Amino acid sequence: MPPKMPGGKKKDDNPLDDKAMALLEKAEKNRTKRIAQAQEIPIEDQVRARISKATFAEPSGRDLHQLSEAILFMGEIGKKLNLGDDIAVRMATLIKDHFTETVIVANTLYAIACCARSTIIFFEQYWAVSVKCVIAAIRFHQLDPLVNSNGLFALGKLCEQSFRMRQLIAETEGIDTILGSMRLHDLDSVVQCNGCLALARLCDAEPPPEPSINPEEDEKMIAQIEAREAAEREGGGGGPRVPYPDHNAWKKQALADACVVQEDAVRAGAVDVLLNAYENHSDDSTLLRDLCEAVAGLAAGNLLLTEDELTSFAQIFVRIMRVDFHEILYVRNRMPVPQVEQHGRDDQVVGYACKALSRMSLVRNLANHAGDRGGAPLLVPHPAKQWAVTSQGGVQRICEALQCFPKKKDTVLYKAARGLSILVKQDLQGLQEMIKHKGQVFLQESMGRWYEDEDYHLLALQTLRVLVEGTDGVRNIWYLETSKGREVAKAVVQGYQAIAKKSSNLHDQDVSSEMARVLLPDKKRQTFGRAPSDNIPTKTVVYMGLPENEPPPP
């Protein structure tokens, strides 16, 4: 028997008496019951209940701690769920009621950013008040870095939703607000990052499509249109014409508005602000990635940027693509790392630098049918801009990115392949740089590694097609007459033939057949119908800012 304790109790007896144990069991049952009841209530109603409870009293008598927790809870739930128009109005009201409380204002701005995609975008009648509240809060609390950071984050998220929202922000002094915050807090990396992202979204020439109010009807209409177009390609009548709006009209309007915003940003000093951000945070990989996005948005389609400014940005991106931000690994998973992968470069920085270098060379296409279905693209490369990037080693660095990041398909390879297709299109110097640094070899190797990804396979094929078709859009004679050029042309033709065979589309089959006829002639015509003296490439120098018929300066 265990020994007795003073008072007659055993040593191993529970120190709590029966009454205390009963109270604990009752409390646990009540807790379980409350959790079950909360799970039965929809999460949107829980958000409204917490906000209503926190704002029940007058603004001066509210518990700010409880209100702050309710706002953050609303923001987290609003990332995925539509909380309704009453919550969209409530967020603007919270900023108005607690305009001088920096913590409440900062948390509400964060909640607006979280709810932009799921809630605010669907209630256009509240766009203006939301934008004005965000900009007013940033301007009033201009010395508070938290409010400025969350406010710029909210502006960037709002710009992502609609080009009309972006235009509204630009008309409400959004450019001056973003650049002013970045100037005041030039040493705060978070403010600089959110400012770069907000500027990138505000100036983006190709914003994402707006969310549909009725996606099921849109999918049904798109399926009818695609079926009719497929029937027309097969040679049939295609049935009755399906009436549908011009889905590309908003892209044209968005590009026109973006060009105006880009020019206003350049006049407001955006270039100096971005260069200053790089000088103060040149070792911050996150900020450098956001800086690449800002320059890509500011430069694509912008004709106000001078050649010196484009060259300065190109030099920065070429430099940061070779910087080791991380520790160099020689062994990974008990296996030696290949020599080309023995570096500490940041794949995100390299990927977005590839995107920025290619977007810097684009200008607006002023052709009549640009942007129409099956027509020319809205943005096309400009020779002078291409030269500004290529002369600083942009094509060389993109080829190195393909070589050094063979396993980073989503972050690097996609952007590098798309960047090469833009930089070498109709540019002889870019084509020669790509061949010199074996860009076509690394593209073919990546196609073999990621053969199951059809989207990347098609993108790489399009880039190689630009290489073999050359600057005139027909054939790159001086490269096709080499053995390596014929190998690349053969790979391109085989790739498009495989796509046509898989799709069973007559149009794709005609394209692949014509490509085989043009790029792979018979052995009797190895000169491709030209005299040998005509196969020498020539270089054309284009001066920025001069009309085509005006002679260049001496």
Describe the fold and architecture.
By secondary structure, this protein is mainly alpha-helical. It has helices at 18-40, 43-54, 64-78, 85-97, 102-115, 127-140, 145-161, 163-171, 174-184, 189-203, 215-234, 249-267, 270-280, 285-299, 307-320, 347-359, 383-390, 394-404, 409-423, 428-436, 439-449, 454-469, 477-480, 483-503, 506-519, and strands at 331-332, 335-336, 362-364, 379-381. The protein has a two-stranded antiparallel ribbon. A two-stranded antiparallel sheet has the order 3-4. β1 (331-332) and β2 form a beta hairpin. α14 (285-299) runs parallel beside α16. It is globular. It starts with 17 loop residues before the first helix and ends in a 35-residue tail after the last helix. The relative contact order is 0.05.
Instruction: Give the low-pLDDT segments.
Output: 8-12, 524-554
User: How much of the sequence is in beta strands?
Assistant: under 5%
Average of per-residue pLDDT values: 82
| Largest sheet geometry | 2 strands, antiparallel
Secondary-structure class = mainly alpha
* Alpha carbon gyration radius: 30 Å
Helix content: 55-70%
Number of strands: 4
Shape: globular
Note the run of SSEs as H and E.
Answer: HHHHHHHHHHHHHHHEEHEEHHHHHHHHH
How many angstroms does the end-to-end distance come to? 112 Å
Quickly count the helices.
25
Order of the strands making up the biggest sheet: 1-2
Draw up the topology in text.
Layout lengths: L17 H23 L2 H12 L9 H15 L6 H13 L4 H14 L11 H14 L4 H17 L1 H9 L2 H11 L4 H15 L11 H20 L14 H19 L2 H11 L4 H15 L7 H14 L10 E2 L2 E2 L10 H13 L2 E3 L14 E3 L1 H8 L3 H11 L4 H15 L4 H9 L2 H11 L4 H16 L7 H4 L2 H21 L2 H14 L35
Antiparallel strand pairs: 1-2, 3-4
Helix pairs in contact: 2-3, 3-5, 4-5, 4-6, 5-7, 6-7, 7-8, 7-10, 8-12, 9-10, 10-14, 14-15, 14-16, 15-16, 15-17, 16-18, 16-19, 18-19, 18-21, 19-22, 21-22, 22-24, 24-25
